[in-house]
Amino acid sequence: MANIKKKLNANSPGEFFVDSSCINCDACRQIAPENFSEEGDYSVVSKQPENGEELARSWYALLSCPVGAIGSSGENK
User: Fold this and answer.
1) Global pTM?
2) Going by fewer Cβ within 10 Å, which terminus of the chain is more open, N or C?
3) CB-CB contact of 17 with 70 (8 Å)
C-alpha cells in the first residue's frame, strides 16, 4: 500500500500519487500512459485523470502495481 508520507514530489497534485517504493516497472505507464510518466528512477502521476476512462485506467494501474506504490486519497471513489 502506498504511503502518502513517501509521496514523490514530481507527482501532479490531486487524488493519485506514486511513492518512493516504485521500482519503475512501467506497468502504470503501459496501463494509463495519459496519466503516468517516467521521472528519473520512478514513475509518477504526470496528469490527474480528467474523465471517466482516465479515472478507470488510473484505478487499474493502482490495482496492478506489483509493489503497491500507487496511492489515492479517495476523492473520486
Assistant:
1) 0.93
2) C
3) yes
